Amino acid sequence: xxxxxxxxxxxxxxxxxxxxxxxxxxxxxxxxxxxxxxxxxxxxxxxxxxxxxxxxxxxxxxxxxxxxxxxxxxxxxxxxxxxxxxxxxxxxxxxxxxxxxxxxxxxxxxxxxxxxxxxxxxxxxxxxxxxxxxxxxxxxxxxxxxxxxxxxxxxxxxxxxxxxxxxxxxxxxxxxxxxxxxxxxxxxxxxxxxxxxxxxxxxxxxxxxxxxxxxxxxxxxxxxxxx
Length: 227
Description:
Blueprint: E1 19-23, E2 26-31, E3 34-38, H1 39-44, H2 49-58, H3 60-85, H4 93-97, H5 99-112, E4 115-127, E5 132-142, E6 145-154, H6 163-180, E7 187-193, E8 198-203, H7 209-221
Parallel strand pairs: 3-5, 6-7
Antiparallel strand pairs: 1-2, 2-3, 4-5, 5-6, 7-8
Helix pairs in contact: 2-3, 3-5
């Protein structure tokens, strides 16, 4: 890991702690404003059609094995990134995390170099207005503009954007403003892939708030298809 990467952290208004719990097998959070569903649980009801088609094509067993491997890879890369941004550099990436996670982290370093003035890492957030909670990867300046930053790992770069990632990041921007009063006009999805690519996608969360509200409405009224 490049030793010259040190990150400035800024204090933010204190945000009440939230606690993850399961309600009927669905992830929720206990917050000062009651028990709220997690954004990831909400989005599971809106899995992109491409993923559903893939699961059907390869079969449940293969799909589940691939998902377990992807989750393992993702959590390792996330841990390395979090340590890096916390100014706790690792000494033996390959030894501690394996060759793949180590390589995928090294690919994302050019994007991490654009992060500064970090407000929060792995911070629990909730929106009373929307009735949703979750844990954001990172709130910081990206290329000198305050952003919700989400770190993703993938096998390869996809042709189409996963709308759920953009909706999720946009939710965090709303929850952050609600909790701290600080407005965020940028979401940045940083994806490192197994086949050697780094993809940086930046957008305005305002573009996805409408879709988020639609999803919440469909969830609350039970109009989601049996997926």
